[in-house]
Amino acid sequence: MLLFCRHSLQLSWLAALTAALSSALGRMVVEYSRGKKSAAGHEAAHAEILSALAELQATALALHALLVALALAGHYDHVAAMRQAIQQRHCHLL
Fold it and tell me: Cα–Cα distance between 23 and 63 in angstroms, integer?
């Protein structure tokens, strides 16, 4: 059981890191589109999307830090801690 929990923690750590990287790349794409004549009518949508991606990135990085701290402390039952961290950020990923 402990081996499964360690594997689960490693996958969760990787998922959090992937989410943070993906949101950063998404922000880069939207930022590239801002200010272009062809996207001039979409500034409000761009601002909303950038805000959502920034929040997702912050949540994913916080979750990643929590998972690393749990792994270093030897706590492999991390689902409750993850949900609590996500609820505190008011983001419903789980």
Answer: 14
CA distance 58 to 27: 12
Q: Is the dihedral of CA 42, 43, 48, 52 positive or negative?
A: positive
Q: How many CB atoms lie within 10 A of CB 91?
A: 17
Structure tokens at 24: 């950063």
DSSP one-letter code for 60: H
34-57 pLDDT, tens digit per residue, is: 888 888 889 999 999 999 999 999
> What global pTM score does this model have?
0.68
